[in-house]
């Protein structure tokens, strides 16, 4: 359903189009001299491409490739504005270059450090700890990313999708102009345009030295040298995941949080996540806000912050300060006001309908740039594919953004699907829900005597005969693998009794989900014992 | 009252309360598998920047001691739980002497008699021997392996069961020289395409396979811990024989029910004379109304701990709790913890074709490369996922198969989804968690019938 404001904007854009006479410059590189050419605009068939995608990330690439598979003429623009530190990267977007992929690989590196410690207990004759070489790991991770950049280039080529490494912005609602790194201007016209430019990390506005001396996740994964003693500012999953693996490498790591961790996630689970991190070496500065960042002559950073708990300013010295205080959508440079694409006033994200349409009829948006959507790769990919199918494949299928599963890859992983307990309570009341839970101990932790105090599962169900599952939360090893199948179950409308009928696979951690029986309401202790 | 008694193995191994799973099955198996996985993790970790000496040795005694300590704590835990619930426990061997009466003989040979209104037989199984010269004297089985006080050394594993492959897998993973002798196919009863992939992966990673051979004689060359054994094996396809020397021979050719010597004939309980298994109705009742049976002794039921646990609980609730729920044996998931793990739920491709016919099923499949394997430089186009759908029933998922890391964790949730009537459409509509292995099932597009290649090219 398109909001009234959006519908109005679409109408006015259409009327502007019918009165406009437009000029098109030939693309640079052609032999004929550049001269303006009048072209009938706004009519299908008058544009160079059927589809132009702006943004070569998860959503953009999926959309472009799917459209090309329908035989359409597709172009994609991707451009990475270097970070304030100068970091840049190739085709593939956030996920491939500075998100999911390097994050999970570094998380894996940290887990392998833990495996080294475990191995000792299982009879391997290796010292329980070993030094970690950041450069070797980073090079390996960066090489893998580059192979993915290359793979995407090849996939586009195979489908005859034209790739422009230019920074595009609207000239009019069917024309996008961009400049290459060398400064050459290109104009691209298309019947349909999909915006998928994603987001970039936010820098705090009110902290002196933030941009000059701090880095973000954009830079962390491309550092050639170890970040050393690091302060990660923020309580987002980005902050906790990064702090988690940095601690795993043996680096002195501190997380500074203004208030609660993992806002928007189930808070009981969020606290278990941070509890685990705290008892495994990550330091936390809670209820603190940054004041300023200064650099010493020896390149170390002097950090000043306000500690709200004790009500005074404190300082510390770090090698690296990383901001993980949220992300801003990449909408500012697109010149959206020119074509009338409306943004959400607070978030500055693009407002879209259920069919991913913006306020301008033939302009769409998908992925992190859109308001009210999960900022996840798989949702962007599916949104892109379904959009292409609706535009070119006679499909009517819309995205279902409900019950999207996700996993936070902190040292103890947290996988979840559906509602948090708070949200379920808000919707149905405490009396309307039944929460089953259990603390469990993964078998592999026994021999190593690992602390499993935070290994915990919680299933939030509707109360009553049906006991449909509203949300499932799992904290433990391989959380992503555990949750994926259960997300399918929830898609099928799974109930608690169906879960109970499912026989467990033994010995796994996932089977504990099928064995849940203690309710929070009963007040019984929730620790599972036995085989 | 619970009677539990472990007849020592031919080599004298015995253990405490808890049964096969706790003492000589799932638990020690998974822990030794974990030890082997950690060996692989050590290798991977160097690619991720961890610096330590290249050659790392494994100490068998350290591992078994740690594992046995954990098992002892579980034995103890069970004793405590029974006490807490006022269940009488006797460490005695039970046999029926007449209706409603059993004789319990303890280790010292003292006999006590008990009567009860109802009986549940849950005596499980023990490993089978070959019946060739030297087998009982010199070979070990899974009963002995997990508490072996010395490293088994160069080992021959006889058999193609999941027990054989799992044990061969972790023994090779801790650095031992391992050969598997297989009479015919691997993992009979499991999906054969996947069984062959499991074997191929093990072979690629150092396990030797002697296919289509059976041992005919085991001779002792030298006593020791371990000793030296000579094995003579005969080809199943001709008259060739091979001889080879090993430190240890581990037999894993199957398990026999412990039903033969407990006086069942005295009370008229019918058993399958050939297999020793007990047929029961859908309420786990034998042909004698007051005698029930659960677990590995049952005919045509999965030999799995969680199934036995569930059957036992539901039986007790029906007998004494006024409940009606029966154990649901359909779509029971399981996992084979070979070096490359295999999780499955539902039908194998062969079984699906047999039950539904080729034209009525659609098989979707894909290779996948776990992200963690990329930097580690491990094989691409090896991990594999397959789902089998019933075209005549809304493309209902009737078989789920995954070959890759953490297969058990991946499979569990999908088993729950299958219980809820999972279809291919629902899989396609569900958004995956990224980056994981499990997400591949939400984006499977290529069918076997299309003939398209599933080799991955990257990303």
UniProtKB/TrEMBL annotation, chain A:
<keyword id="KW-0676">Redox-active center</keyword>
<feature type="binding site">
    <location>
        <position position="104"/>
    </location>
    <ligand>
        <name>FAD</name>
    </ligand>
</feature>
<feature type="domain" description="Pyridine nucleotide-disulphide oxidoreductase dimerisation">
    <location>
        <begin position="404"/>
        <end position="515"/>
    </location>
</feature>
<protein>
    <recommendedName>
        <fullName>thioredoxin-disulfide reductase (NADPH)</fullName>
        <ecNumber>1.8.1.9</ecNumber>
    </recommendedName>
</protein>
<dbReference type="InterPro" id="IPR016156">
    <property type="entry name" value="FAD/NAD-linked_Rdtase_dimer_sf"/>
</dbReference>
<dbReference type="InterPro" id="IPR036188">
    <property type="entry name" value="FAD/NAD-bd_sf"/>
</dbReference>
<feature type="disulfide bond" description="Redox-active">
    <location>
        <begin position="95"/>
        <end position="100"/>
    </location>
</feature>
<feature type="active site" description="Proton acceptor">
    <location>
        <position position="506"/>
    </location>
</feature>
<dbReference type="InterPro" id="IPR023753">
    <property type="entry name" value="FAD/NAD-binding_dom"/>
</dbReference>
<dbReference type="GO" id="GO:0004362">
    <property type="term" value="F:glutathione-disulfide reductase (NADPH) activity"/>
</dbReference>
<dbReference type="GO" id="GO:0045454">
    <property type="term" value="P:cell redox homeostasis"/>
</dbReference>
<dbReference type="GO" id="GO:0034599">
    <property type="term" value="P:cellular response to oxidative stress"/>
</dbReference>
<feature type="domain" description="FAD/NAD(P)-binding">
    <location>
        <begin position="49"/>
        <end position="384"/>
    </location>
</feature>
<dbReference type="InterPro" id="IPR001100">
    <property type="entry name" value="Pyr_nuc-diS_OxRdtase"/>
</dbReference>
<feature type="binding site">
    <location>
        <position position="326"/>
    </location>
    <ligand>
        <name>NAD(+)</name>
    </ligand>
</feature>
<dbReference type="GO" id="GO:0004791">
    <property type="term" value="F:thioredoxin-disulfide reductase (NADPH) activity"/>
</dbReference>
<dbReference type="InterPro" id="IPR012999">
    <property type="entry name" value="Pyr_OxRdtase_I_AS"/>
</dbReference>
<dbReference type="GO" id="GO:0005739">
    <property type="term" value="C:mitochondrion"/>
</dbReference>
<dbReference type="GO" id="GO:0005829">
    <property type="term" value="C:cytosol"/>
</dbReference>
<keyword id="KW-0560">Oxidoreductase</keyword>
<feature type="binding site">
    <location>
        <begin position="234"/>
        <end position="241"/>
    </location>
    <ligand>
        <name>NAD(+)</name>
    </ligand>
</feature>
<dbReference type="Pfam" id="PF02852">
    <property type="entry name" value="Pyr_redox_dim"/>
</dbReference>
From TrEMBL, chain B:
<keyword id="KW-1015">Disulfide bond</keyword>
<keyword id="KW-0274">FAD</keyword>
<dbReference type="GO" id="GO:0034599">
    <property type="term" value="P:cellular response to oxidative stress"/>
</dbReference>
<feature type="binding site">
    <location>
        <begin position="159"/>
        <end position="166"/>
    </location>
    <ligand>
        <name>NAD(+)</name>
    </ligand>
</feature>
<keyword id="KW-0712">Selenocysteine</keyword>
<dbReference type="InterPro" id="IPR023753">
    <property type="entry name" value="FAD/NAD-binding_dom"/>
</dbReference>
<dbReference type="GO" id="GO:0005829">
    <property type="term" value="C:cytosol"/>
</dbReference>
<feature type="domain" description="FAD/NAD(P)-binding">
    <location>
        <begin position="17"/>
        <end position="312"/>
    </location>
</feature>
<dbReference type="GO" id="GO:0004362">
    <property type="term" value="F:glutathione-disulfide reductase (NADPH) activity"/>
</dbReference>
<keyword id="KW-0676">Redox-active center</keyword>
<feature type="active site" description="Proton acceptor">
    <location>
        <position position="434"/>
    </location>
</feature>
<keyword id="KW-0285">Flavoprotein</keyword>
<dbReference type="InterPro" id="IPR012999">
    <property type="entry name" value="Pyr_OxRdtase_I_AS"/>
</dbReference>
<feature type="binding site">
    <location>
        <position position="296"/>
    </location>
    <ligand>
        <name>FAD</name>
    </ligand>
</feature>
<dbReference type="InterPro" id="IPR046952">
    <property type="entry name" value="GSHR/TRXR-like"/>
</dbReference>
<dbReference type="Pfam" id="PF07992">
    <property type="entry name" value="Pyr_redox_2"/>
</dbReference>
<dbReference type="InterPro" id="IPR004099">
    <property type="entry name" value="Pyr_nucl-diS_OxRdtase_dimer"/>
</dbReference>
<dbReference type="GO" id="GO:0005739">
    <property type="term" value="C:mitochondrion"/>
</dbReference>
<dbReference type="Pfam" id="PF02852">
    <property type="entry name" value="Pyr_redox_dim"/>
</dbReference>
<dbReference type="GO" id="GO:0004791">
    <property type="term" value="F:thioredoxin-disulfide reductase (NADPH) activity"/>
</dbReference>
<dbReference type="GO" id="GO:0006749">
    <property type="term" value="P:glutathione metabolic process"/>
</dbReference>
<keyword id="KW-0521">NADP</keyword>
């Amino acid at each position: 359903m398109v909001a009234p404001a959006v519908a109005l904007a679409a109408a006015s854009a259409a009327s502007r189009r019918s009165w406009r006479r437009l000029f098109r410059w030939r693309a640079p590189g052609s032999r004929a001299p550049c001269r303006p050419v009048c072209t009938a605009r706004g009519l299908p068939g008058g544009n160079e491409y059927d589809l132009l995608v702006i943004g070569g990330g998860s959503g953009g690439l999926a959309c472009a490739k799917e459209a090309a598979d329908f035989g359409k003429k597709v172009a994609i623009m991707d451009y990475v504005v270097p970070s304030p530190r100068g970091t840049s990267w190739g085709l593939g977007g956030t996920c491939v270059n500075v998100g999911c992929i390097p994050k999970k690989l570094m998380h894996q590196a940290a887990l392998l450090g833990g495996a080294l410690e475990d191995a000792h207990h299982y009879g391997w004759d290796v010292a329980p700890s070993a030094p970690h070489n950041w450069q070797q790991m980073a090079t390996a991770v960066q090489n893998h990313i580059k192979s993915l950049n290359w793979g995407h280039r090849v996939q586009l080529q195979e489908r005859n999708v034209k790739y422009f490494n230019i920074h595009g912005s609207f000239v009019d609602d069917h024309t996008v102009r961009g400049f290459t790194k060398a400064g050459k201007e290109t104009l691209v016209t298309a019947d349909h345009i999909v915006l998928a430019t994603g987001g970039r990390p936010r820098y705090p506005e009110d902290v002196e030295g933030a941009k000059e001396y701090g880095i973000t996740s954009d830079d962390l994964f491309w550092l050639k040298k170890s970040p050393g003693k690091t302060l990660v500012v923020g309580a987002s999953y980005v902050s906790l995941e990064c702090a988690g693996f940095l601690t795993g490498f043996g680096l002195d790591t501190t997380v500074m949080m203004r208030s609660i961790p993992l806002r928007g996630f189930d808070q009981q689970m969020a606290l278990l996540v941070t509890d685990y991190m705290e008892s495994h070496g990550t330091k936390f500065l809670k209820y603190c806000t940054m004041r300023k960042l200064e650099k010493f002559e020896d390149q170390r950073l002097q950090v000043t912050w306000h500690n709200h708990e004790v009500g005074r300013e404190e300082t510390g010295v770090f090698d690296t300060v990383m901001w993980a205080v949220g992300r801003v959508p990449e909408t500012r440079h697109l010149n959206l006001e020119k074509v009338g694409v409306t943004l959400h006033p607070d978030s500055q994200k693009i407002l879209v309908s259920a069919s991913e349409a913006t306020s301008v009829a033939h302009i769409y948006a998908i992925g992190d740039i859109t308001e009210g959507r999960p900022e996840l790769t798989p949702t962007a990919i599916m949104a892109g594919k379904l959009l292409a199918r609706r535009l070119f494949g006679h499909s009517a299928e819309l995205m279902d953004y409900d019950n999207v599963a996700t996993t936070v890859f902190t040292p103890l992983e947290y996988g979840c699907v559906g509602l948090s307990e708070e949200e379920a309570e808000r919707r149905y009341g405490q009396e309307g829900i039944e929460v089953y839970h259990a603390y469990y101990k993964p078998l592999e932790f026994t021999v190593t005597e690992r602390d499993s105090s935070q290994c915990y599962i919680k299933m939030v169900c509707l109360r009553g005969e049906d006991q449909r599952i509203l949300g499932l939360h799992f904290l433990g090893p391989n959380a992503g693998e555990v949750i994926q199948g259960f997300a399918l179950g929830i898609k099928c409308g799974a109930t608690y009794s169906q879960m109970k009928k499912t026989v467990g696979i033994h010995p796994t951690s996932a089977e504990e989900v099928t064995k849940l029986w203690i309710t929070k309401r009963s007040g019984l202790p929730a620790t599972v014992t036995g085989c | 009252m619970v009677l539990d008694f472990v007849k020592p193995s031919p080599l004298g191994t015995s253990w405490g309360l808890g049964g096969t799973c706790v003492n000589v099955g799932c638990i020690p198996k998974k822990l030794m598998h974990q030890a082997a996985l950690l060996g692989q993790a050590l290798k991977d970790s160097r690619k991720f920047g961890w610096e330590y000496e290249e050659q790392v040795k494994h100490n068998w005694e350290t591992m078994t001691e740690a594992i046995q300590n954990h098992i002892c704590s579980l034995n103890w835990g069970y004793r405590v739980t029974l006490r807490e619930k006022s269940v009488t426990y006797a460490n005695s061997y039970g046999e029926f002497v007449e209706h409603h009466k059993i004789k319990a003989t303890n280790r010292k040979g003292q006999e006590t008699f008990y009567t009860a209104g109802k009986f549940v037989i849950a005596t499980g199984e023990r490993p089978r021997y070959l019946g060739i010269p030297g087998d009982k004297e010199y070979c070990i089985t899974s009963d002995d392996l997990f508490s072996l006080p010395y490293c088994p050394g160069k080992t021959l594993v006889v058999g193609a069961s999941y027990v054989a492959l799992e044990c061969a897998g972790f023994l090779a993973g801790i650095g031992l020289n391992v050969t598997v002798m297989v009479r015919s196919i691997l993992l009979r009863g499991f999906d054969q395409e996947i069984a062959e992939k499991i074997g191929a992966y093990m072979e690629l990673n150092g396990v030797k396979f002697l296919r289509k051979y059976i041992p005919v004689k085991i001779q002792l060359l030298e006593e020791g811990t371990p000793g030296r054994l000579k094995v003579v094996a005969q080809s199943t396809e001709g008259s060739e024989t091979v001889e080879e020397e090993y430190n240890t021979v581990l037999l894993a050719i199957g398990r026999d029910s412990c039903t033969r010597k407990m006086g069942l004939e005295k009370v008229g309980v019918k058993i399958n004379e050939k297999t020793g298994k007990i047929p029961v109705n859908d309420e786990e009742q034998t042909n004698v109304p007051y005698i029930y049976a659960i677990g590995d002794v049952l005919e045509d039921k999965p030999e799995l701990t969680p199934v036995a646990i569930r059957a036992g609980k539901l039986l007790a609730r029906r007998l004494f709790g006024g409940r009606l729920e029966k154990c649901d044996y359909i779509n029971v998931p399981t996992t084979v913890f070979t070096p490359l793990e295999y999780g499955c739920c539902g039908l194998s491709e062969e079984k699906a074709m047999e039950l539904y016919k080729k034209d009525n099923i659609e098989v979707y499949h894909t290779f996948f490369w776990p992200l963690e394997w990329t930097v580690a430089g491990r094989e691409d186009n090896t991990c594999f996922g397959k789902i089998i759908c019933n075209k005549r029933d809304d493309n209902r998922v009737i078989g789920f198969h995954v070959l890759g890391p953490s297969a058990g964790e991946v499979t569990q949730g999908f088993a729950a989804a299958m219980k809820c009537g999972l279809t291919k459409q629902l899989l396609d509509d569900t958004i995956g968690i990224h980056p994981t292995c499990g997400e591949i099932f939400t984006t499977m597009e290529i069918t076997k019938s299309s003939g398209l290649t599933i080799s991955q090219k990257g990303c």
